[in-house]
Amino acid sequence: MILLKTNSIYYNDVNLIARNSAVNSRTEVPKELDRIMVSPMAAVVGKEFALEASKLGLSVCLHRFCNPKEQGEIYSSIFDKENVHCSIGLDDWDRVKYLNELGVKNWVIDCANGYIPKVKEVAETLLRLFACKTLTIGNIMTGEGIILYKELIEKYSKVKFLFRVGIAGGKACSTSDATGYNRGQITEIDECFSVADELGCYVIADGGVKNGNYACKAFGAGADYVMMGSYFAKAKQAHTWQIGDGTYWGGASIKQQTLFGGIRRHSEGKVVELEENETKPLSELVDELWGGIASGVSYSSYPSLTQFIGNGLFEVKQNSLPPGR
């Protein structure tokens, strides 16, 4: 057995500590909504949601749990595609070819385990054969997970590499219960930020970012982006409300498998019920989220979110609650 000497620090284990402000009001903090990424969840990202999210300035990941033409239709309907990313699976080359013809250059290799050799093989093939502006890889929880891709990062230096950092942190994920694998988000973001900064790539905090509080902590710890799913499931435009479902579910849940291709494996996902009275227009959810983030930046000694990233001042709580999702 190997027992690490590091501590697993979760979002709710720490507080951010205020410093001398560089701005007089949160309204002076420039908006950087593209640093907020919508997770490629089938329950959230349908056509109506994707159009509105893109219009508001969010980064949107189109999910792969549909046929390529459906995914391509949503992609083509979005006017500004700068921050639109298309998800693919590990044996999804027909989808890649179709989307490539539509001009897709922002790719997400959508896999819960970024440590398996197949993910790197797919990344190498994608980079070698298809146009690629940004490549999002995941999921990982250690700096070692980024180093696995060092050769590709150095070889394809013009491509922007993003790494989804976080395993088993999402509210609809039960990987931790099924396998025992999990890590405190602050610990994993901090470690991955150090490696990513050295290699010239970027960190996405993925899993457990449930509100502005946790988003601020993720950015302060070193995340360049935060990826959020359950938060946006409360949007009236979310696909789950468009089809009258009212739930969201994990990518490895039995419900996901039943809806898309049939049950193939055990479940590592949950189905979460939503209350309709909790729903709001997406614009309101975005305003509330950005308001919290901008306010958080105003308490730091930095004038912008970009400058705040990786520079948060933290203090560990004396009596932390168990990890909340």
Structure overview:
By secondary structure, this protein is α/β, with parallel strands linked by helices. The chain has helices at 47-56, 68-77, 93-101, 117-129, 143-147, 150-155, 175-179, 185-199, 212-221, 239-242, 254-259, 282-298, 305-308, and strands spanning 14-16, 36-38, 59-62, 84-88, 106-109, 134-140, 160-165, 202-206, 225-228, 247-249, 271-273, 314-316. The strands form three sheets. The protein has an eight-stranded parallel beta barrel with strand order 2-3-4-5-6-7-8-9, surrounded by six helices. Strands 1-12 form a two-stranded antiparallel ribbon. The protein has a two-stranded antiparallel sheet with strand order 10-11. β3, α2 (68-77) and β4 form a beta-alpha-beta unit. α2 (68-77) runs parallel beside α3 and α9 crosses α12 (282-298). The protein is globular, with a radius of gyration of 19 Å. The model has no long low-confidence stretch (mean pLDDT 93).
Strand content: 15-25%
Spatial sequence of strands, sheet with the most strands: 2-3-4-5-6-7-8-9
The overall average pLDDT, rounded, is: 93
What structural class results from the helix and strand content? alpha/beta
Shape: globular
